[in-house]
Amino acid sequence: MDYITLIILTMAIGGFMTWYCNHNLKKYSRVASVTNITGYQAAQMMLSAHGVSGVRVYEGAEGHDHFNPTDNSISLSPSVFRSTSITAVATACHEVGHACQFAEGYSPMRIRSALVPAVNLAQNAWIFVFFAGILFNLMGLVTLAIALYAVAIVFHLVTLPVELNASHRAMDYISSLGVPQTESGSAFTVLRACALTYVGAALISILNLLYYLQFINNDN
User: Fold this and answer.
1) Edge-to-edge strands of the sheet including 73-76?
2) What DSSP string runs through 105-121?
3) Could you tell me which residues are beta bridge partners of residue 74?
4) How far apart are CA 89 and CA 170, in angstroms?
């Protein structure tokens, strides 16, 4: 695989996944849920239904919907926190899914959390090590750089079951609210679109790894 092909593939994959996700988030943010509950209310109700306590749900910055295991809190965008849309309810329940994983000690989440320090180090260091190896023609450094990059791929792969499981938990809860099949289908579309961004990130990382491995193979 040459560099131009790599760039075209990664841009196409990343661009499509981002467009598809944003398109569906926006589309269903204009469709009200029949439950008539806000994202904040949906989060609180799902936490209570699963017997998970001590989780703070607050209104954060726009676009920053996430569960933070360090302080056991859920941040919801204003457009999710206050809205009664299908997107808002689905997004809030997905983040509660992560809170439930944390409360239960869900293994993939524990593994992902344990990998964070190593991933942060690898992501910051690998490119410098890689170019140093190329500059000084030291294949040992190139190999080390690729190994560091591979750590990030492991993180992406571990992230997939964490995200998919959180969405599965969200869908189970939304379905339990007795919403019409059309609404549960729309919520699934929203969650699937978001999950595909993680699939795309993993695929792009793997394609990059295959490209960098050529440096080792060519040297041999």
Assistant:
1) 56-59, 73-76, 66-68
2) T-HHHHHHHHHHHHHHH
3) 57, 67
4) 9
- Token pair for residue 39? 């994202």
**Which residue among the candidates 95, 104, 163, 183 is catalytic per the annotation?**
95
Q: Are 66 and 81 in contact (CB under 8 A)?
A: no
Tokens of 128: 């410098």
- pLDDT at residue 138 tops 90: no
Catalytic, 95? Answer yes
Encoded amino acid at 88, one letter: A
List, in sequence order, every beta strand (DSSP E) within the chain: 56-59, 66-68, 73-76
Q: How far apart are the first and last CA of the chain?
A: 17
Distance CA 139, CA 156 (A): 26
Cβ-based neighbours of 204, under 8 Å, separated by 6 or more: 10, 13, 14
The Cα 125–Cα 117 span in angstroms is 12
* Tens-digit pLDDT profile for residues 70-86: 999 999 999 999 999 99
